[in-house]
Amino acid sequence: MADTLQQVRIGIAEGAVIRRAGQIVTAGLGSCVGLVLYDDKVDVAGMVHIMLPNAPKPNPMHPQKYADTAIPWLYEALLREGARPLHLQAKMAGGAQMFRNLTTEALRIGDRNVHVTTELLHDLQIPVVTEDVGGHYGRTVRFDLPTRVFSIRTARGEERQI
Hints:
- It is a single chain.
- The protein has a single domain (about 5-155), classed as CATH 3.30.1330.200.
- The protein is built from 2 helices and 10 strands.
- Helices cover about 20% and strands about 35% of the residues.
- It has helices at about 65-80, 110-125, and strands spanning about 5-10, 15-20, 20-30, 35-40, 45-50, 90-95, 130-135, 140-145, 150-155, 160.
- By secondary structure, the protein is α+β, with helices and mostly antiparallel strands.
- This is Probable chemoreceptor glutamine deamidase CheD.
């Protein structure tokens, strides 16, 4: 009898955690960041689809929307599922500059999302094992347990696994 593969799809400003065999998928990563945290010893992983770098106020209604609230939300959710802080690792994609001619810092949301995400992971001592960030194109990502393969499909039709 074959195992049923759990596939969880998350949208913009959403997050989810899976245990054992399964996949988490999110689409529409332009300037947004798709961040996966996983325990490299236990089959537990989670993903958030980060839209903006910083929440405008403490305790927003949708903490997964902002890097500064999404990462703590995901971290705590993984610990509740049995992940160990010292075993957590990260993979991420997205953070594109979708409009090439915009140079105003306030509009460089992709760069700011990646910067804040990277800083917060550093503060939590979670290494970023691999990333596919920047550029000028959108992405769809899928993370698989138990293989821990992060698959990326670009809007240009390219596919790769990291």
